[in-house]
Amino acid sequence: MPGKRARRHFSQLSEFERGLVIGRKTAGWSTCRVAGQVDRSECEVRNGWEQWTREGTHARKTGSGATRKTTRREDRRIVRQALVDPTVTRSTIRADVGVAIVPQTI
Predict the structure, then answer these.
(1) How far apart are the C-alpha atoms of 69 and 2, rounded to whole Å?
(2) Quick check: helix, strand or coil at residue 59?
(3) How many CB atoms within 10 Å of residue 44?
């Protein structure tokens, strides 16, 4: 199909793109026209514009979910231990790293 745009999975609007959306929607452009100009879906453009009109900000929201309990350095130590000895137990890793970890972390 010629003219079909490639889908961008799980990518958010950049700060620059958010500014373009807000500026062009403020100028009276349609959502469809703005989406074509910034090469994004109408849904992404609509969501960015609704956030601007509702909250007065275009800042990205922080991610959801639980906060991290281990640092990247501790994560690397855990992975290194698991690669060196695949039979290592969680209690051994916990003692070496010094952080209480759950099985999902490993």
Answers:
(1) 48
(2) coil
(3) 20
